[in-house]
C-alpha cells in the first residue's frame, strides 16, 4: 500500500507498480478517506487478481477501512495510514456484515476471516474444499459449500470463533 495526502502519492504508486493506463489486468485500487478525526488521505492498494470483489467496506473498528482489490483484502487505520495496511485475506469472493455484534466476514473459496471491534477476530482457512458461500449470519454462520459428489452441503459455524457447530 502507498498512502499519503499529496499529489505525489499517485506518482509514487505509478512508479512502484509501473502503471500503464492501457493495461487492463492486475491494476491497483485507489482509495480516498476523509475521516472526521484527522486529515484526508489517499491510498493505493495492489490487486490480488484471484477474487471477484473490488470495493471498500466500513469495519466494526471505527478507525479501520477494509479495502478489497480483486480478492486481496487489506485493513488500514484511516487515522494513521502511514502505519500501512494489513492483508487479512486473499481470494475474497464475498463480504458479509453482521450488525449485532458488529462483524465483517470475508469469505474465500474455502475459508472465512472475521473482523470485529478489536480488529481480526479469527480466520478459518479450510472450512470447505471449494465453493464456500455465506447464506446467514445469525444465530450462527450458515454456509453453503460444494461437496465431492458435485452437489452442495451446509456448514454451521459459531460467528464469534469460526468453530463448526
List keywords for this structure.
6% helix; 4-stranded antiparallel β-sheet; 165 residues; 14 strands; mainly beta; globular
Overview in brief:
The chain is mainly β.
Descriptive report:
By secondary structure, this protein is mainly β. It has one domain (2-157). It contains one helix and 14 strands; from the N terminus they run E-H-E-E-E-E-E-E-E-E-E-E-E-E-E. The protein has one helix at 8-17; strands at 2-4, 29-33, 41-45, 55-58, 64-69, 72-77, 85-89, 94-98, 103-107, 112-116, 119-124, 133-136, 141-146, 152-157. The strands form four sheets. It has a four-stranded antiparallel sheet with strand order 4-5-6-7, with no helix packed on it. Strands 8-9-10-11 form a four-stranded antiparallel sheet, with no helix packed on it. The protein has a three-stranded antiparallel sheet with strand order 1-3-2, with helices on one face. A hairpin with a 2-residue loop joins strand 10 and strand 11 (119-124). The radius of gyration is 17 Å and the shape is globular. Residues 4-24 have low confidence and may be disordered.
Amino acid at each position: 500500500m502507498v498512502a499519503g495526502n499529496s499529489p505525489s502519492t499517485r506518482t509514487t504508486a505509478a512508479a512502484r507498480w509501473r502503471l500503464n493506463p492501457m493495461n487492463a489486468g492486475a491494476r491497483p485500487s485507489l482509495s480516498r478517506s476523509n475521516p472526521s478525526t484527522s486529515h484526508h488521505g489517499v491510498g493505493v492498494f495492489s490487486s490480488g487478481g484471484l477474487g471477484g470483489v473490488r470495493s471498500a467496506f466500513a469495519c466494526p473498528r471505527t478507525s479501520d477501512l477494509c479495502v478489497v482489490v480483486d480478492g486481496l483484502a487489506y485493513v488500514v487505520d484511516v487515522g494513521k495510514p502511514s502505519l500501512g495496511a494489513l492483508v487479512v485475506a486473499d481470494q475474497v469472493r464475498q463480504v458479509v456484515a453482521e450488525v449485532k455484534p458488529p462483524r465483517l466476514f470475508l469469505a474465500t473459496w474455502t475459508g472465512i476471516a472475521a473482523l470485529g471491534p478489536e480488529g481480526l477476530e479469527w480466520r478459518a482457512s479450510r472450512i470447505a474444499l471449494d465453493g464456500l458461500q455465506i447464506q446467514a449470519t445469525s444465530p450462527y454462520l450458515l454456509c453453503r459449500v460444494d461437496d465431492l459428489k458435485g452437489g452442495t452441503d451446509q456448514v454451521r459455524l459459531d460467528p464469534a470463533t469460526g468453530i463448526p457447530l
